[in-house]
Design brief:
The complex is a heterodimer.
Chain A: E1 21-22, H1 25-35, E2 39-43, H2 46-55, E3 59-62, H3 67-73, H4 82-91, E4 96-101, H5 105-113, E5 118-122, E6 143-147, H6 150-158, E7 163-166, H7 176-193, H8 197-206, H9 211-220, E8 226-229, H10 236-244, E9 249-252, H11 254-257, H12 262-274, H13 279-286
Parallel strand pairs in A: 2-3, 2-9, 3-4, 4-5, 5-6, 6-7, 7-8, 8-9
Chain B: E1 4-9, H1 15-23, E2 29-35, H2 38-44, E3 50-53, H3 58-67, H4 69-80, E4 85-88, H5 90-95, E5 96-100, E6 113-118, E7 129-133, H6 136-139, E8 151-155, E9 160-164, E10 170-174, E11 186-191, E12 194-197, H7 208-220
Parallel strand pairs in B: 1-2, 1-3, 3-4, 4-12, 5-6
Antiparallel strand pairs in B: 6-9, 7-8, 10-11, 11-12
Helix pairs in contact in B: 2-4
Classes of the chains: A alpha/beta, B alpha/beta.
């Protein structure tokens, strides 16, 4: 599915008297629209951020440990040290994102204060609130949130998220959960399109989503914001798979810097996302990438360590 | 005059929004084609009447273009031949002869538009803004759907045109002047059939700037 639907048809929020308007939905969702067809890479320091930028990342996600290490080390995973994020901001010219714990609006206030370009309210970190997500409408900084299905995506958009990603299962190098979440989402969107207007009320209740957003999904035939794949993408083929399944772009976490030749693999994944429908290019860029990250079977992960179950 | 076909470079960024906007001009535009590779470009270059270079991350597009020498050189030649091309935001950066605030080590570009462009001129996302732009060149098309003559200007981590290098480059739009009497920054220019804008008309419902570019394509292909 391409981004050809009228999702860009939003009323201009600029004020009539000629004053500039900031932090509008157009600007928040618009930055994500500019990231489409790109790869957002997890980095843990300025050096990795530079490698990612040189490889063609359209943005970087600054965090202290990649998900694979969070998984290995255990314990409570929190927002990264602002100093580290600032070093990354100084090192690159592309947008810098950073993660906060689900519901931890003070971590978000801190990230907003240091001027990150996007916040990921992420299930990869240990949730700080077992009932509530952050009220993202209260922030000037835009948010991306994870989802497993349409209801979860629309709840997050209802709370103010201006970009969505699949949850997948981060830090596994196993794309199966991202595929499941993308397929679920797309299938539910097609289902909504087949419904008449009365049915949308009951369906909105069933999936616990705001009714007006379900109506919007029917009108657009897609989510009303940009939707990336995330959680387990490790190869150029994985990235192209997610694009062919209808995602607008790809997050790669542990897959790059836990592999044998990060710079080369990063560049290959960037090429794969642009040329996702061209098997000839995909074959070329998949050659000689060295060791991929070691994968984990989802069935080997204890239930309490399945990140995609976090978030409500 | 037959209707036009417009090529949209689809390496990364907001290319489908441009396609959507161009499709809203069915009286002028017959169709659009996505250009992702050198082969795509060779296949369509003789049948398209203009090219759009969309917004996105200029560093990403530059790195993909490095691999696609045919496309890169083809676009350079297209600009040198004075054929119609419009770069928005990152596309403007790619077209500019001189770029400041690039990533470390600089970045490959297409060039040909004789201006100096500063990347991220306003700062980070928190400094992104929307402001109505007064653009005389599009006012003959009448008011937009909101009844305003001004174009909703969407500036997202936007570049500005610091300077134009000669009188062959015409200023199409500026931000409003400041209170101290200083002129506002240059945010759109035209050099022959080459158009550059630092804002994103494709993220609005106002189709007039796209019509302005399509009219340039039509006049150039008469």
């Amino acid at each position: 599915m391409s981004f050809q639907t009228p999702a860009n048809l939003v009323a201009p929020a600029a004020t009539a008297n000629g004053a500039a308007a900031k932090s509008t939905f157009v600007l928040k969702a618009g930055l994500a629209q500019n990231l489409k067809g790109g790869v957002i890479m997890d980095v843990i320091n300025a050096e990795q951020a530079r490698i990612a930028e040189e490889a063609g990342a359209c943005a970087v996600m600054a965090l202290e440990r990649v998900p694979a290490d969070i998984r290995k080390n255990g314990g409570v995973a929190r927002m990264s040290d602002p100093q580290m994020i600032k070093e990354i901001q100084a090192a690159v010219t592309i947008p810098v994102m950073a993660k906060v714990r689900i519901g931890h609006f003070v971590e978000a206030q801190i990230l907003e204060a240091i001027g990150v370009d996007y916040i990921d309210e992420s299930e990869v970190l240990t949730p700080a609130d077992d009932m509530h997500h952050i009220d993202k409408t209260k922030f000037g900084v835009p948010y991306v949130c994870g989802c497993k299905n349409l209801g979860e995506a629309l709840r997050r958009i209802g709370e103010g998220a201006s970009m969505i990603r699949t949850k997948g299962e981060a830090g596994t190098g196993n794309v199966v959960e991202a595929v499941r979440h993308a397929r679920t989402l797309m299938s539910e969107i097609r289902h909504v399109q087949s419904m008449d207007e009365q049915e949308l009320y009951a369906f909105a209740k069933e999936i616990r989503a705001p009714h007006h957003l379900v109506v919007e999904v029917k009108r657009l035939g897609r989510l009303p914001v940009v939707n990336f794949a995330a959680g387990g993408v490790a190869t150029p083929a994985d990235a192209a798979l997610m694009m062919q399944l209808g995602m607008d772009g790809v997050f790669v976490g542990s897959g790059i810097f836990k592999s044998g030749d990060p710079a080369k693999r990063a560049r290959a994944i960037v090429q794969a996302v642009t040329n996702y429908n061209n098997p000839k290019v995909l074959a070329e860029v998949s050659e000689n990438l060295g060791e991929a990250m070691v994968g984990i079977n989802i069935s080997d992960i204890p239930d309490s360590e399945i990140y995609s179950k976090r978030g409500w | 005059m037959a209707k036009l076909t417009i090529g949209v470079v689809a390496l990364q960024g907001a290319f489908s929004e441009h396609i959507f906007m161009l499709q809203r001009l069915p009286d002028l535009v017959q169709g659009t084609v996505e250009i992702r590779s050198s082969e795509d470009f060779d296949r369509v270059k003789d049948s398209i009447h203009g090219i759009v270079l969309p917004g996105g991350e200029s560093t990403t597009m530059a790195i993909i273009l490095e691999r696609e020498a045919g496309l890169r050189n083809g676009l350079k030649q297209w600009v040198q031949d004075g054929k119609p091309i419009w770069g928005t935001c990152a596309g403007l950066i790619m077209l500019a002869d001189t770029i400041t605030s690039t990533k470390k080590g600089g970045q490959t570009q297409i060039g040909g538009l004789r201006v100096t462009v500063q990347r991220n001129a306003f700062g980070r996302q928190s400094d992104s803004f929307e402001v109505p732009l007064s653009i005389p060149a599009i006012e003959s098309y009448g008011a937009n759907l909101e009844g305003s003559l001004a174009l909703p200007g969407v500036f997202i981590r936007a570049p500005v045109i610091e300077s134009v290098h000669d009188e062959g480059v015409v200023v199409v739009a500026r931000l409003q002047g400041r209170e101290d009497g200083k002129e506002g920054e240059i945010v759109a220019v035209k050099q022959g059939n080459v158009l550059g804008s630092s804002f994103h008309p494709e993220l609005t419902s106002d189709v007039r700037f796209h019509r302005y570019f399509v009219d340039i394509c039509r006049d150039a292909n008469k």
